[in-house]
Design brief:
With about 325 residues, the protein is mainly alpha-helical. It is built from nine helices and eight strands. The protein has three domains: about 90 residues, 2-Layer Sandwich (Herpes Virus-1), CATH 3.30.40.10; about 55 residues, Double Stranded RNA Binding Domain; about 120 residues. The strands form three sheets. A three-stranded antiparallel sheet has the order 4-3-5. A three-stranded antiparallel sheet has the order 7-6-8. A two-stranded antiparallel ribbon has the order 1-2. The termini are far apart.
Length: about 325
């Protein structure tokens, strides 16, 4: 009898991990689990309750309110007649867990990976996200269990260096490039998810990408020359009227336009330098990893219409021709 009483008085446990609740949540059927436990369960199985097997057509919203216990759902009135003392134990357990995470995080041990999102007193990371390229502790991992979109991000055992050139799924060396999915793959990938795809060697794909980099470099350098010429043309037009008592609206507009063009030139020169450096690298794996970020076009504006109107106005006042035949 005493043993039964002790079992009934013991704090409730999660039926998945069989341990005390950590960040407890409830699902629509009323059963409660650790947030990470039900989150991982739903990543591997359909959206259903592990206890009563109730299926949900879409991934349901997780509830953090202390309303039900782990063994049985609520009745129609939203309360369990036997859950009075149990609810108090649950609340104490939740408060204890929350305080442990917020106030006294366990100190990091040698070799452990810290959470990337902890501002101070960084906690030990429990999972790494292969899309966000970050490692998270339990509290900061919650959005990946709650949010539908983040829930699709693959989570793996903590990686110390997320940018290391190894397969994130199998931990093996990257050996091939899948043109079907535009990604680097390992030997295991070629026999599983990428079986039957268009696979080529890393060297072959790197040579192809290097040629594209050189073409992009030429285009960026041409853009730098064109924008530099436009800046010089505006500066020449404005320089002749320097010393006037009051600047015209066109002159003020010209100064603002020069600043925008100069900023774009700086960004283009940065991109040019990166393309130049990458086009000469002999590290083919590094080239393929960096290529996507450098192949996307820079967001520069087409100032031709504005420049044509502005220079025309300045030229009418100054009566000087434009050096740029495209703007005449």
């Amino acid at each position: 009898m005493f043993k039964v009483f002790m079992e009934m008085s013991a704090p409730p446990r999660c039926c998945i991990c069989l341990d005390h609740f950590t960040s407890p949540v409830s699902i629509p059927c009323g059963h409660r689990f650790c947030l990470s436990c039900i989150g991982e369960y739903w990543r591997q199985c359909d959206s259903k309750c592990p206890l009563c097997m109730t299926r949900f057509p879409v991934r349901p919203q997780l509830n953090t309110e202390q309303t039900v216990h782990t063994g049985a759902p609520c009745d129609n009135n939203g309360s369990d007649p036997k859950s009075g003392e149990l609810q108090q134990l649950q609340t104490e357990q939740t408060q204890h867990t929350g305080a442990r995470w917020q106030e006294n995080p366990d100190p990091l041990r040698a070799g452990e990976v810290p959470c990337n999102d902890c501002p101070e007193k960084r906690r030990r990371a429990s999972k790494s996200c292969l899309v966000c390229l970050k490692s998270y502790c339990e509290p900061h991992l919650e959005p990946h269990y709650r949010d539908t979109i983040l829930g699709r991000h693959p989570l793996v055992t903590v990686w110390k260096n997320l940018e290391d050139p190894v397969c994130r799924l199998h931990g093996r060396q990257l050996e091939k490039f899948c043109r079907s999915d535009q990604t680097l793959v390992c030997a295991t990938c070629t026999q599983t998810d990428h079986r039957g795809h268009r696979l080529v060697t890393i060297t072959k794909e790197a040579i192809k990408r290097k040629n594209k980099l050189k073409k992009s470099l030429i285009k960026v350098q041409q853009m730098i020359q064109e924008k530099t010429k436009k800046v010089e043309d505006i500066q020449l037009s404005v320089a002749i009227v320097e010393g006037a008592e009051k600047k015209t609206a066109a002159e003020k507009q010209a100064e603002g336009l020069i600043k925008n063009l100069e900023q774009e030139i700086v960004e283009l020169k940065t991109r040019s330098s990166e393309l130049e450096q990458l086009s000469h690298t002999d590290d083919h794996l590094h080239l393929l990893q960096r290529f996507p970020s450098l192949s996307s076009p820079l967001h520069t504006k087409d100032w031709s219409h504005v420049l044509k109107s502005l220079l025309h106005e300045l030229q009418e006042k100054l009566e000087i021709p434009s050096r740029d035949p495209k703007l005449q």
